[in-house]
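Predict the assembly for these two chains.
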Amino acid sequence: MNKIGILATYLTQEHRDKIQAAADLAGREVHYFKDAADCEANLGDCEILYGYIPAGFIKKAASLKWLATAAAGVDALLKDEIYPHEGIILTNSSGSYGVTISEHMIMTTLMLMRRMPAYQEEMRRQEWGSLGNIRSIYGSTIVVVGTGDIGTNFACRAKAMGAARVIGVRRTLKEADPAFDEVYTTDRLKEAVVGADVVALALPATASTIGVFSKEIIDSLPSRALVLNVGRGNAVDQDALIDALNEERIAGAALDVMVPEPLPKGHPLFSAKNCILTPHCSGTMTLQHTNDANVDTFCRNLVRYARGEEMENVIDRGIGY
Amino acid sequence: MNKIGILATYLTQEHRDKIQAAADLAGREVHYFKDAADCEANLGDCEILYGYIPAGFIKKAASLKWLATAAAGVDALLKDEIYPHEGIILTNSSGSYGVTISEHMIMTTLMLMRRMPAYQEEMRRQEWGSLGNIRSIYGSTIVVVGTGDIGTNFACRAKAMGAARVIGVRRTLKEADPAFDEVYTTDRLKEAVVGADVVALALPATASTIGVFSKEIIDSLPSRALVLNVGRGNAVDQDALIDALNEERIAGAALDVMVPEPLPKGHPLFSAKNCILTPHCSGTMTLQHTNDANVDTFCRNLVRYARGEEMENVIDRGIGY
């Protein structure tokens, strides 16, 4: 029977039962790799691979027809060279991360708006007192660059919390979620950020997103702007962002992604002003909901794949998502 | 002309213009006190007082008919002894604080759920890596004790972020906001918290709320419970809460109010496990929206007062809100 190879550390017995049920429907056999080394040694006869499969292993998957990555970002999986042959379907797990990453975005936006790191520092010193004026999501103008699952989940939450205006920025104009009051195309990004309280980047890393948050855009931000990045670090001119933070030309930033990762000790981002850093943890497999949604997406797709039906989250490797 | 005395540091020219317009309609003269000493010396002929008037001054306000406090909590203004005579109307500024305090509550809930203080500590050490499983508001059961402006604003935001169940707990059953899936009376608090991921206290300090979050209730919380308090510190058996935190019988707490305030250096709360403290800053006059809403409420009430119409936010000093 054709084989599904799975490399994933987050699966519960319930997840395995679901996968088994879908595999039975699909007429495939499930094989769990013990670890990365086991995966590398034994993926040669797998028709399907699911989980976090290192890009460097895929070349050896001679029987591969479908690679289902548990990640949302597929930038490491775009190049032809990593594949053993043409025609391999690549799907990602878009839809699993919107909840967790948007909660991270709401949290860090409020931490920046409410001077929370400074209050935490005050409490560490065991002192007491107001640190001055704060801001709110309520009544704010929020620009979301990238209107996929993550950006849309954030937009909905910001709108529900009373944001006055939520502007989406996307590659091409098409019907967006009603959470967006307006939608701009990426070439009008500079125009979109003019009145922003918050600019949230939730972009995949593709040829067209690298450096899109350029020095020119950063230098045109209003001084009250807060910048979030949960997509990929290379979307941002990081040096220009650090300068804008340290010269207080913008009000703050919260970066879950950066260049490089991990950030080496002593990197200037660690000491940038009003900058909240997190170690690319906003959307990892640490939340039950994410893991459940991820497995559900794979199981639905497995049945569709077996039946020759249209699959979800199929990546156009030319565009990059 | 009868006088309105105002002691407030947060008023902009726009606010003063609004107050002047309302005073003109009401046929009253506006007098701004320079500072607390000026207020104490010169409030004797004021018919109306607005702002943050120290409770100890009120006895000297021989002409007082209406005390409009800019605060939401009125526990310092309940006793007959502080007043110069009977029949003085007391109003608070309920309605001004729901936005800012509920944003604080969403922020701290997410910080606790997402291990944010530990991630911040990791970043301070300039290290990198996942700190393990996190939780989400999405899918959670949230118990809100006190279903006034603040509790209701929090409930709406939690619901909009996908909370599975939002339970309100209030003194008496009456129609609550549709954000609450269920409402319990306070005498059933122990029952209400059984399945809680979050228990949020947004209670005024009244005779019946002191100690309501007792050792018995705290000891009955599920181990995953996170406790928020934005009302008054004396609603909680603080020693029992500290024990529960340090023995990891509950998952965490975020306290903006405590006993005493300011918290003295070396107080055990400063070192309690998984406890986020803030210096009673969640709802002060540091947010434009709060200040605007506060002034608007006073102006509306001023016109109603002058016309002999029913006023907003009139406190029943017997009940305490």
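The two ends of chain A are 31 Å apart (CA to CA). Chain A has a mean pLDDT of 96.
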